[in-house]
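2 proteins. here.
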Amino acid sequence: MTFRAKALIGLLVIVAVAGASPVFASLDGNRYTNDAHRIELSRPDATWELRERLPIPSVVAGFVVGDGTAAAALMHYVIPANEVLTDATDLARRRNAIAATIACAVTGQPGPFEFERTEFSGTDDRITFDLFFSNRETGRGALENWVQGFIVRDDDDRQHIYAVRCAVTRGTFQSWASQFERIVPTLHYTGAVATPTYTSRPIPIWWWFAGGVVLLVGYGLLRSRRSGADEVRIVRPVARSTAASSPQEDLAPVDFAGSAPDPGEDVPDILRATSGGPSGGYGEEDLTSDRPARRSSTVTPEVAETAAPEVAIGYWTCRCGRKNSEADTFCVRCNTDRS
């Protein structure tokens, strides 16, 4: 195949593709329609020439008279998700910032702008605005601007700004006002509108991260508590010391074969008392002695405490050092007769 044949085939393909591509924008008489942006706008007459592919990103198209003495630009701007208007209070609080955003988008410059008037009003399906401001552009000098448009929300939950900017050289606005008033009211949105216009901002990603961390920490604490409640605790028995004995071990076993110790031996001498007669308490009889049965008595500490002051002078001292009651004729310790 020759080079000429290949070139012809390539040209036919380009023509076919171009013919199959949909036409998004068109000018029918004085009515301009752009289906891609779902917008329509009319010009006063054919003296206003259509200009497309302008260097300003947000400007879809524009009408220019002569060498650009006056111009009307059609703008479409999508508000970022983190800057959407959430309610009327949010609009009132941010109206100056929204006005500056619209001016930047429609002029393609960051400013500065000298606002003379900023008006906003809202209905169920849109927020309308009317802005008058001055700015300065390189090559054109000082300009006067009238920007009018509206904010709508579409089916994708996005807020769109549509506006027409009418601009002329400063000091000549009044001579063009009648022409501008024939252009601005023709702005029309052809897409679907969702109500209300206000919408909510998406939750920042760092909020999702913080919420995930909180959930993980809470889940970990919950699991640790459950595992602690379900854990079977094994208590190790405490080994008893051989040096310390229990109360039961401190009690000596009863020796029924031998004789029990005399309980009176543990009572101090000053608390002992003996007496005869039926009312006294007597000790055991000495069965191994040939003497008549002798009996001694001990009194309880309580009785001794009350009786001691009265009988303190009625004692005698044995050679072994034992103090015996005056009534005893022998020593209750060594069994020696009183001398």
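next one coming up
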Amino acid sequence: MNSKTVIGIVLIVIGIFALGYQGITYTTHKKVVDIGPIEATKKEDKTIPLPPIVGILALAGGVVVLAADRRAS
């Protein structure tokens, strides 16, 4: 496998992931109260949205790279 084939496959996988999940979610811990030995924290879930166009562009780009690689060889 050459590098163009690997790049095409990676783009296709990223495109499918972006279309399937529509965002990346992560959790942060925020300190709310800190009074001597007493400490209270709060969990916050945050999401980075991925627009569907990102997945479509990555998927299409991967297909184009694979097609161009097949045509060249």
